[in-house]
Fold this sequence. Notes:
The complex is a heterotrimer. Chain A is mainly alpha-helical. Chain A has a domain at about 5-40. Chain A is built from 3 helices and 2 strands; from the N terminus they run ααβαβ. Chain A has helices at about 5-15, 20-40, 75, and strands at about 60-65, 90. The radius of gyration of chain A is 22 Å and the shape is flat. In chain A, about 35% of the residues are buried. The model of chain A has no long low-confidence stretch (mean pLDDT about 95). By secondary structure, chain B is of the alpha/beta class. Chain B folds into 2 domains: about 1-260 and about 395-475, Amidase signature (AS) enzymes; about 305-380, no CATH class. Chain B has helices spanning about 1-5, 10-15, 25-35, 50-60, 105-110, 155-165, 180-185, 220-230, 275-290, 305-320, 340-350, 350-365, 370-390, 415-420, 430-435, 460-475; strands spanning about 45, 70-75, 115-120, 170-175, 190, 210-215, 260-265, 295, 395-400, 435-445, 450-455. Chain B has an 8-stranded mixed sheet, sandwiched between helices. The model of chain B has no long low-confidence stretch (mean pLDDT about 95). Chain C is built from 15 helices and 17 strands. The two termini of chain C are about 45 Å apart. By secondary structure, chain C is an alpha+beta fold. Chain C folds into 3 domains: about 20-305, no CATH class; about 310-420, no CATH class; about 430-485, Arc Repressor Mutant, subunit A (Orthogonal Bundle), CATH 1.10.10. Chains in contact: A-B, A-C, B-C. The interface between A and C is large, with 32 and 46 residues. Strand 2 of chain A pairs antiparallel with strand 10 of chain C. Bound molecules: magnesium ion (MG) and zinc ion. Zinc ion binds near residues 25, 137 and 165 of chain C.
Amino acid sequence: MTINKEAVKKISKLSRIASNDEFETSMIKDLNTILKFVDQLNEVDTKDIEPLSSVVEQKLFQREDVVKKMNEKEEILKNSPNKNENYFVVPKVIE
Amino acid sequence: MSEITKLTLVELTKKIKSKELSALEAANAYVSRIKKSKKLNTFVTETLDQALVSAKNIDDNNLKSGVLAGAPIAVKDLFCTKNVQTTASSKILKNFIPPYESTVTSKLWDSGAILLGKLNCDEFAMGSSNETSAYGNVINPYQESGENLVPGGSSGGCSSAVSANLTSSTVGTDTGGSIRQPASFTGIVGLKPTYGRCSRWGIVAFASSLDQAGPMTKDVSDSALMLDVISGYDEKDSTSANIEKGDFLNSLNKNIKGLKVGIPKEYIVDNMPKEIQTLWDKGIEWMKESGAIIKNISLPNTKYALPTYYIVAPAEASSNLSRYDGVKYGFRAPGKDLIEMYENTRAEGFGNEVKRRIMIGTYVLSSGYYDAYYLKAQQVRRLIKNDFDLAFKEVDTILTPTTPSSAFKIGDKTNDPISMYLNDVFTVPVNLAGLPAISIPAGFDDSGLPLGLQLIGKSFDEQTILNSAYALEEKISFKSKVIDWWI
Amino acid sequence: MDKKFDYFLEGKTGKWEVVIGLEVHAQITSNAKLFSSSSTKFGSNPNSQVSFVDAAMPGMLPVINKYCVEQAVKTGLGLKATINNFSKFDRKNYFYADLPQGYQISQFKFPIVGEGQIILDMPYGTKIAGIERLHLEQDAGKSLHDQDPSNSFVDLNRSGIALMEIVGKPDLRSPDEVAQYVKKLRSIMRYLNTCDGNMDEGSLRADVNVSVRKVGSSDLGTRCEIKNVNSIKFMQQAIEYEAKRQIEIIEEGGTIDQQTRLFDTKKIETRSMRSKEDAHDYRYFPDPDLLPLVLEQSFVDKIKNSLPEMPDEKKIRLMNDFDLSSYDASIVVSDRDISEYYEEVAKDSDYKLAANWMIVELFGVLNKEGKEIKDSPVSAKNLSKLINLIKNNTISGKIAKIVFEEMVKNNEDPEKIVNEKGMKQQSDPEELKKIIDTILKNNEDKVEQYKAGKDKLFGFFVGEVMKNTQGKGNPKLINDILKQQLK
Ligand SMILES: [Mg+2]
Ligand SMILES: [Zn+2]
């Protein structure tokens, strides 16, 4: 499978990364190189092989339904590049 | 003074405990050396003044009970440190001051260690040369005919700092080799514990199913001590292993008589420098001399580890890095609406390698490609793990080279992602299988650059690889060739 | 059945049928969030119930709430659904200001609950609506768009709250069926105490999937999803509007685009939320921060054995044991609080009278005052006493209504009211006979006329006796005695 300009545009949109000609050109080259490299996997017969998403073999720990000390609103908002007294502030969504 | 910074962590903490050395003397030695070593660009953030205050406090109040009491330690800038800037070497986390401390670093401070600062790394730990950092590349204390070399990556600030005696030891993270490869490039010991051995809570995530924190130290004993401190079950990390932790340093011994060591034929790769093959052969001899039994084994899917990794890791990363959107913390670029703000923030805030991986990760998860790439990679990942499971029915540990080359020149591989990725060919399979592995300095190539050997262990059997490494270490008797050319 | 299903929409080309399926989001009534320990309390100050996990701070990890798992299983059992002993958490990736992680943790491939059903009592009979699945997921935060001309404000208090998404099969055919479905589902969850069903506070919302087809056709048309509708009335209005819109498009030769739409509650219309080119690709994949959720069968069985009696079973019991009509029984079991109130009233009194008094008199008062049964001004105990006063002829039904009005004012004991106000029924036959004889003597002319065939005069005599007893004469006794004496 190869990636063309349109595909790169679509992926950058999905990834929320602003794209321009220069970016697209370099991405087409790099992504195709990487895809060609990973295409080696097609040599492997994986019929009936259970996919592995975690190597951990234990039961999922479940915590009790207890409210722990709340963080201060200030601590949560402190690092935001744009905030007011109570909220994170973001540019409006244009529909 | 400079003799202090050459002490191993075990020696240093012993001297401080016995009051042969004050914590402040130790801190001062490191602080003054760090100040003279800016050229290596190992630090993103320094906390030297605070370090001296903490050291004095330890002396004044005789706070010597912790096993690391008074040990000055800098950590990879991927660990969130309370009230100290944490950037993951990315512009997008600029000025981020975590209001919390990672579990692993909490354990360091609880044991009496003192924070010297945050060490440079590849941006979000994505890289094998420390050239992707937004804070500039790190320089290896080893040079090749006067030319600067990469320290390896992604824990390149860590490896360079330990090798150059700018920290008594450190903790890095290893997703595909990020502890072991830089350790090999700089002549130090690097240990990637079993996945789940150390908590991931508070570590900036790269690829969650692979990331693991681990020690980077001057010798094997130091790694054992460090692992004693930083490992353990953590209810805050659902993937953390709820099993008894060992007493690694106290159990450390050189007796590997009868130990079965596997030599995988698939680790002989094309274009591998002769010196590496020679060193590997020597390693086999040394193990034999120590009484180990050598067995040839096969890990047939080894060549598929890198392609598998370059699907799984970017896929997880593309999702893990979605939280960097300019809303809650870090860098924000302007935009006329929300979407434009996101796109500009992420285009300007992330470097090229990170963007490349986010793009690849997004692609392999996207509708129509998931089965062909992501699912396929997860299946091959199972086969790779099965290879190890089978091999470990025959052997107790596996010996391989750590890297297929020694440290290379800055800029040498930046234009070819695949040649860069190939650096991790021997380290990546271990991450995919979740196993522990240690790299120890084993010698030098013809240019005088350090080379490492890797020992891979069974799940949660760090003790066996530590002991094997300990035995090997004695045979090798590696001596650092770092000369302080930058001072 | 006297009524037949008749919800068909008349188009230019014939009759259309509407096909509806609901995805209900129900908030679990837990103290803490699904993957973090912050509070779920409604109506708190903005961003005051946000943990580092909820704000997606770097390095933060999810840890699941056991109680929420139990509630999902409980709800699944209440829906007579399959409980999946193996389920998994997946990430649903998309960017939005109120989604701090850039993904929602949900269950995609392996939900915790599989197929189940809901029984609906429709005027034309019983209908079974299928449940496709129920899965656990996190809620998002809230964006406020109307506070500032160029910015939106983000509040993360809701971020991470546990939701059950209950996906129904496209089995519903009219707005009424949708209303019944939502009410029944809410009732089941209230019986189980797993969701408070409070639609005003957003504890229960639904995405409504609507398509249309010609009557007689069995193909499914292209559906549109109307997002996040938070009242039954709005759901009904949205469906009606959306179905008509689709019919119009098709009849004019167009085709329906599969779309996400929103319902404008002011204009009572649906409109497209986003254009096609922006179509979401959620890139679901297993969350590497979590492990599969494996439930022991013994755990499921324990919950199963502790389930309360559910509305369908209770209805059958009330019809069998208490001889209630299907209609009365449906009303009584429609809500757990109502059914409990009823059983308390009926416990020591006539159960048919109890149903009648609740449904007619008490509900009349509650409706008028806009109150829920749990805030009823008349306690179950006092209503039970009132019914007994009627049953044992202490007061007449007519007087009972007056007593009831008194009880509504301050929930007073009806016996006390009757005693204090002297409202006891006159039921002494001797006493009544005396009064009647006097009246007949005083109205001899009318007695003559009655005996000559003017039957209507009977009412006049009754009225006179009632006047004489201040309305407290036992009507049945008066009748009997009068008839006797007038023979
Ligand atoms: Mg939906
Ligand atoms: Zn949902």
